[in-house]
Amino acid sequence: MSDNPHDVDAARARIEAARARLFGTLGQVQERLSPSNLAQDAVETAAHGVATVARKGAEAVRSRPLAAAGIAATVGLVMARGWIGDILGKRHETRDPATGLKRKGKKGSS
Fold this sequence. Notes:
Layout (H helix, E strand, L loop, with lengths): L7 H25 L2 H29 L1 H15 L1 H10 L2 E3 L6 E3 L6
Antiparallel strand pairs: 1-2
Helix pairs in contact: 2-3
Pfam families: DUF3618 (PF12277)
Protein name: ElaB/YqjD/DUF883 family membrane-anchored ribosome-binding protein
């Protein structure tokens, strides 16, 4: 290239170099924005977030094990309340000997 700003060949060379850089950049942008890369980035970000939450949860359990056990027991009881209710409700049910069907009755009555 020459230092003369009016040199047509030098201007064309600069244009071609700029065009090559532009197309290279466009190729990189297209690659980054491809659906597979976007999905992979989303999965990696989610995995990193889950790992962070798990690590913080483990730290919280280590620092307060009794509180964590109490919370876990409460959640377990809430989730099993229907099952527990069914078990406790069966104590008051009796079967009608004639039909074999269950009927609810007071404790101690037949």
